[in-house]
């Protein structure tokens, strides 16, 4: 059985890996010259079931409205004429109820926990190295009100079996000594001992190497022009290098999946939400954090990759624009300097912005379509790495006629 995977990001490569392990002949097609050079390139690097909360929450509409008038909001809305954004935002707002938020979060954490187990197994089986730190993650709060709210909300995750520990200020510093300089501004934290961090780009490149050893063909630097179909089957893919054909096809193009899907008659509720990251060098004179985490008041994430410190922040609803300027990173740098005054070389930042392929619910779209040989694996949002191995394995099970190992209600076209 030959399967063509459209997309060479972390989702496409993990899909190729699990297909190859199942015995398929696999071809991966992507427009970039290497794997994981778009959304997966410089993301937060957190493998974080402990941060599985859906973005569509009762607080989200107020934050988005405030972002039109005030800087520094974690969620930002930029007005534009793209009707697709407004249609998607309407669906997003419909999910901003207490009931929908709890339901979507419970589905996300179930998928994330399952996926992490598979990611750990692949790491061990294939001896992958990607600056992994598996000592847990800290979810940090700076004032009593937000800390109280965070502790209250964590029951959604704890009820799904996720281990979570509440830490007071002293316990936070004991767990992460690099925060000692900012101890007076810390109220407390929620610690998830099973969460991890690492460089998703390195992980994907390592898995690509293993895929090639398993016989996977990568057609990189190849633009996908059209997916040709007749009746209820895909016939071939028209690319800049000619036709690519197979027995089955997987659409894993992240934020760009709706463009090809629309030509086949599908309206995918996937829209890009822009995120920003800055990576800073570390040398022997610095005192960087040893664990990754999230500063929950400003929603600034941090993770250490060897001699680099990565900061990420902001969810910006602005279409397919990946442009950025130094001003876009000022609030995350200020937050990091307040937490880790000597955490890295703040004079040598490397800036990046990418597009998270979000669904209104925050859960991905996996599985079959009305074309008998076409399957979707897209819409992973801000947790693409955390979810990638899980959705890949689920998809392979569905393609093979097996029941997935977890409930995927709410994660299919149906």
From TrEMBL:
Record's keyword annotation contains Repeat: no
SUPFAM superfamilies: FAD-linked reductases, C-terminal domain (SSF54373), FAD/NAD(P)-binding domain (SSF51905)
Pfam families: DAO
Top-level taxon of origin: Bacteria
Molecular-function GO term, any one: oxidoreductase activity
The keyword Ion transport is annotated on this UniProt entry: no
EC number annotated for this UniProt entry: 1.4.99.-
Family listed: Belongs to the DadA oxidoreductase family.
The protein's name in its UniProt record: D-amino acid dehydrogenase
Organism listed in the record: Paraburkholderia sejongensis
């Amino acid at each position: 059985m030959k399967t063509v995977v459209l997309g060479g990001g972390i989702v496409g490569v993990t899909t190729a890996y699990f297909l190859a392990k199942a015995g398929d002949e696999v071809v991966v097609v992507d427009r970039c010259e290497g794997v994981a050079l778009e959304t997966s390139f410089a993301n937060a690097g957190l493998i974080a079931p402990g941060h599985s909360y859906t973005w569509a929450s009762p607080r989200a509409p107020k934050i988005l409205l405030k972002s039109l008038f005030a800087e520094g909001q974690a969620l930002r809305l930029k007005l534009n004429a793209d009707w697709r954004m407004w249609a998607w935002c309407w669906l997003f707002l419909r999910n901003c109820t207490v009931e929908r938020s709890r339901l979507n979060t419970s589905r996300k954490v179930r998928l994330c926990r399952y996926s992490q187990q598979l990611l750990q197994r692949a790491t061990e089986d294939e001896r992958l190295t990607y600056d992994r730190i598996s000592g847990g993650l800290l979810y940090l709060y700076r004032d009593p009100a937000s800390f109280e709210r965070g502790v209250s909300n964590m029951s959604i995750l704890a009820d799904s079996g996720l281990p979570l520990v509440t830490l007071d200020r002293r316990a936070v510093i004991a767990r992460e000594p690099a925060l000692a300089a900012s101890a007076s501004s810390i109220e407390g934290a929620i610690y998830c001992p099973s969460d991890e961090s690492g460089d998703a780009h390195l992980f994907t490149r390592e898995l690509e190497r293993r895929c090639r050893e398993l016989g996977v063909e990568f057609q990189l630097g190849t633009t996908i022009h059209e997916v040709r179909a007749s009746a209820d089957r895909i016939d071939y893919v028209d690319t800049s290098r000619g036709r690519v054909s197979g027995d089955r096809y997987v659409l894993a193009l992240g934020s760009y999946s709706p463009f090809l899907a629309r030509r086949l008659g599908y309206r995918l509720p996937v829209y890009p939400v822009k995120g920003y990251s800055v990576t800073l060098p570390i040398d022997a004179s610095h005192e960087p954090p040893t664990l990754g985490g999230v500063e929950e008041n400003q929603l600034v994430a941090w993770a250490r990759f060897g001699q680099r410190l990565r900061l990420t922040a902001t969810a910006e609803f602005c279409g397919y624009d990946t442009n950025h300027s130094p001003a876009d990173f000022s609030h995350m740098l200020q937050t990091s300097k307040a937490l880790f005054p000597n955490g890295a070389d703040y004079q040598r930042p490397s800036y990046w912005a990418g597009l998270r392929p979000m669904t209104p619910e925050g859960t991905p779209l996996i599985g079959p379509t009305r074309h008998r040989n076409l399957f979707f694996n897209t819409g992973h949002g801000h947790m693409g790495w955390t979810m990638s191995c899980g959705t890949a394995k689920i998809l392979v099970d569905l393609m093979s006629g097996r029941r997935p190992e977890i409930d995927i209600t709410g994660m299919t076209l149906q």
